[in-house]
């Protein structure tokens, strides 16, 4: 009899084995036993303790933060608390309100379920069988059913985005590679240096306490906090299988108790009803929710980016009675909201006064919402109400026909609205005789509208520069009768208007400038509103005349370096290799981050001054922290405590810096060049050891009233990191605010500092700007990942 039972047991199916213990299950032995409640006050104390701890040295956290499953999870007292929202607010409330500070959603952490290609029941059962094999724990049938039910509700798989094994099976395989076994070098793939999207899950792996919360009326007994806790518990158990020391990856899970007495300091945004989305008046620009959302830097960085863009590229004059602006300007004008000032705003796009990132929190309960509008937006002057010709540049728009243009020429007293193709959408192959007639006569229409009506024209697009730049530059060539390169120089230096031309735009304008200048009103001031004629000979001559390629602007075949601050430019190695271009832009100083200028090899080296200031102690490239040689730290309990007002001399700093990274200053041909050698964008080389010297060089340029170009190879990572640090200093703000300021002014080139550079900037903020608005590491990474997702496919 016993032999028969043994044979039956051996032939049991795997599903039956999962069920065996269900008849004798005991809640005390359940892997997801009832979670402990925690009060709001207790959670706030835990949160404050985490805020007081400083970030570990980068050598402790990297390369682990870059990738998947190397060795074991690093131990640190920092990152020990995760706060997770189990569900949004109920219907009638705004989903993105009612959140605690530094809190995450499950979608930030877990692998999405593909309901078309994945059988959820089968996936869960297969993985639980595998878990039983590896750990000996046999899930009960109730646990299996519960986990499947919870996953189906959330439409998520119970696996973290950082789970190497599960990602290979069920995630995007391109993110992991082709091997399940981690060879310890997967993080070295270039894409892994910028995996901002997985940092929330990395943070959860580091945490030994996880608190689930929601602000629903049924909390905590009739809500989904327990379900979310079950997901986190199982995911932590699964991801532990990637490591040798598995027990360290099982956090203690709590559920927030009463929600009526949550400390105010723990709230990122109070619950708000849908009525908060309504504008108090017809002319209002921001709602109460918009204001509350602006105050919280934990969420919705995309909204803040749009606000910053609308400020940076707000309406400005580019020629007599001709303006350029953005879609927000047009919306404001149609609401007839104007600035109390009598003249057009003189704020420059790179001005430290023309930004939202330095604003203090605004009172969303303020009854005078118009006062708040004037802080978030640049309201146009009363003169702008005189606009009568609106030309919107959009990607999908065709060129207006000559018939349509002629119609408007005969109706100049009426308000006119036209659409024009965006920059980058017209190539040389599109330039037929008819299209060129249309192009030239649009410029003619703008000029005649000003001349005959004395009213204004407004050329605009969504961001104020991307789509409009082609038409703006073409009109200025036509209006001023000057060459393309001179227009670009004057637009940048005199009009100080942001613009962005694609290489194809430079090609088109290089040929088109001949016609535009030949038909310029300056050559025939008596010309009337009759359409301009272009005969086939002029058309042929335009294409047979080769544009001059010796001009600095045209030879670069791309945008100019970006002006970030009055004294600060951000660009590429190509810009720095062109000293004539830099001279035309008034730039006399260069910071070369990790790249060498071919024309500066024979420069005369200068002795660096000695600086005395609080410095971050650097770490060798993923080796032992060098801090132990200069700090009297007794043990791990003290290693992460934030120490302010420490002072190191440059001599001390030089002893601790990476032996291969060096900063030198040379002079060559009228340029001062600060060169940081052997600093790559490889996820390995730290920058903090050089940052103090580089910023001191930039400060000397600032004090002399001179401009400086900061560049690396492309101008998106190493040099962008330096510019962010400089903006933190000049704007007296935190990393996320300075990041947004630089990102917006880099125009269409998206800055992409690697993970370690952003991490080091947070370390920099701890010492240099401790009172600036603080956003936690994992929250900042989530915000950057969400921003990048809007512009970059597979942004990792």
From TrEMBL:
Ranges of residues in domain Tyrosine specific protein phosphatases: 692-757
Record-linked InterPro entries: Dual-sp_phosphatase_cat-dom, Dual_spec_PTase, Prot-tyrosine_phosphatase-like, Tyr_Pase_AS, Tyr_Pase_dom, TYR_PHOSPHATASE_DUAL_dom
Pfam families: DSPc
Keywords: Hydrolase, Protein phosphatase
A GO molecular function held by the record: protein tyrosine/serine/threonine phosphatase activity
GO biological process, one term: nuclear DNA replication
Organism domain of life: Eukaryota
Domain Tyrosine-protein phosphatase: 560-770
Gene3D superfamilies per record: Protein tyrosine phosphatase superfamily
GO CC annotation: nucleus
Name the record gives this protein: Uncharacterized protein
């Amino acid at each position: 009899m016993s032999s028969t039972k043994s044979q039956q047991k051996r032939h049991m199916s795997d599903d039956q084995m999962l069920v065996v213990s269900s008849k004798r299950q005991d809640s005390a032995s359940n892997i997801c036993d009832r979670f402990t409640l925690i009060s709001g006050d207790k959670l706030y104390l835990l949160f404050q303790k985490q805020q007081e701890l400083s970030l570990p040295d980068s050598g402790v956290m990297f390369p682990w933060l870059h990738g998947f499953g190397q060795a074991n999870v690093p131990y640190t007292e920092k990152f020990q608390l995760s706060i997770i929202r189990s569900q949004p607010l109920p219907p009638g409330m705004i989903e993105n309100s009612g959140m605690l500070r530094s809190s995450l959603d499950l979608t930030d952490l877990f692998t999405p379920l593909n309901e078309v290609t994945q059988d959820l029941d089968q996936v869960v059962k297969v993985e639980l069988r595998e878990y039983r094999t590896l750990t000996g724990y046999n899930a009960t049938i109730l646990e299996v059913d519960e986990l499947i039910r919870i996953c189906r509700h959330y439409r998520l798989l119970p696996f973290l985005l950082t789970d190497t094994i599960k990602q290979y099976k069920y995630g995007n395989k391109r993110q992991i590679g082709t091997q399940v076994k981690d060879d310890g070098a997967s993080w070295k793939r270039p894409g892994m240096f910028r995996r901002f999207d997985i940092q929330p899950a990395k943070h959860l792996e580091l945490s030994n306490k996880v608190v689930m919360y929601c602000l629903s009326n049924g909390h905590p007994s009739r809500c989904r906090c327990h379900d979310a806790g079950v997901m986190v518990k199982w995911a932590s158990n699964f991801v532990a299988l990637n490591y040798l020391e598995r027990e360290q990856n099982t956090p203690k899970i709590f559920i927030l108790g009463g929600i009526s007495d949550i400390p105010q300091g723990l709230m990122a945004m109070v619950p708000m009803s849908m009525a908060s989305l309504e504008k108090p008046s017809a002319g209002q620009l921001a709602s109460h929710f918009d204001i509350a959302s602006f105050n919280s830097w934990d969420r919705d960085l995309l909204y803040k980016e749009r606000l910053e863009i609308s400020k940076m590229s707000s309406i400005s004059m580019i020629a007599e009675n001709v303006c350029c602006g953005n879609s927000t300007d047009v919306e404001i004008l149609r609401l007839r909201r104007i600035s109390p000032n009598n003249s057009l705003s003189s704020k420059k796009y790179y001005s430290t006064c023309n930004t939202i990132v330095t604003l203090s929190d605004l009172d969303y309960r303020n009854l005078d919402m118009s006062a708040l509008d004037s802080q978030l937006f640049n309201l146009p002057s009363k003169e702008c109400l005189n606009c009568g010709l609106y030309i919107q540049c959009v990607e999908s728009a065709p060129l207006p026909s000559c018939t349509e243009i002629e119609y408007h020429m005969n109706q100049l007293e009426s308000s006119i609205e036209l659409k024009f193709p965006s920059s980058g959408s017209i190539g040389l192959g599109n330039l037929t005789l008819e299209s060129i007639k249309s192009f030239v006569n649009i410029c003619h229409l703008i000029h005649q509208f000003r001349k005959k009506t004395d009213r204004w024209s407004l050329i605009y697009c969504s961001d104020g520069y991307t789509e409009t730049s082609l038409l703006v530059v073409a009109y200025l060539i036509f209006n001023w009768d000057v060459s393309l390169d001179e227009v670009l120089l004057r637009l940048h230096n005199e009009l100080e208007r942001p613009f962005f031309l694609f290489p194809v735009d430079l090609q088109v304008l290089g040929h088109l400038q001949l016609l535009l200048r030949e038909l310029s009103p300056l050559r025939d001031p008596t010309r009337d509103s009759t359409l301009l004629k272009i005969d086939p000979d002029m058309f042929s001559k335009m294409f047979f005349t080769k544009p001059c390629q010796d001009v600095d602007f045209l030879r670069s075949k791309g945008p100019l370096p970006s002006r970030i601050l009055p004294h600060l430019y951000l660009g590429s190695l190509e810009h720095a290799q062109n000293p004539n271009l830099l001279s035309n832009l008034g730039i006399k100083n260069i910071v070369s981050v990790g790249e060498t200028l071919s024309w500066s090899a024979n420069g005369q080296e200068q002795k660096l001054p000695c600086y005395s200031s609080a410095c971050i102690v650097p770490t060798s490239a993923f080796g032992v922290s060098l801090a132990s040689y200069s700090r009297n730290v007794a043990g791990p309990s003290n290693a992460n405590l934030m120490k302010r007002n420490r002072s190191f001399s440059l001599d001390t700093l030089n002893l601790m810096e990476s032996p291969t990274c060096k900063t030198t200053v040379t002079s060559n041909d009228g340029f001062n060049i600060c060169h940081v050698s052997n600093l790559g964008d490889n996820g390995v080389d730290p920058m903090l050891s050089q940052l103090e010297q580089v910023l001191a060089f930039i400060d000397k340029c600032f004090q002399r009233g001179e401009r400086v170009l900061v560049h690396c190879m492309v101008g998106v990572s190493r040099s962008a990191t330096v510019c962010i640090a400089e903006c933190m200093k000049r704007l007296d703000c935190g990393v996320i605010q300075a990041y947004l300021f630089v990102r917006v002014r880099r125009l269409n080139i998206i800055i992409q500092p690697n993970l370690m550079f952003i991490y080091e900037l947070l370390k920099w903020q701890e010492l240099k700007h401790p009172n600036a608005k603080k956003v936690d590491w994992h929250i900042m990474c989530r915000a950057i990942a969400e921003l990048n997702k809007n512009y970059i496919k597979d942004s990792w």
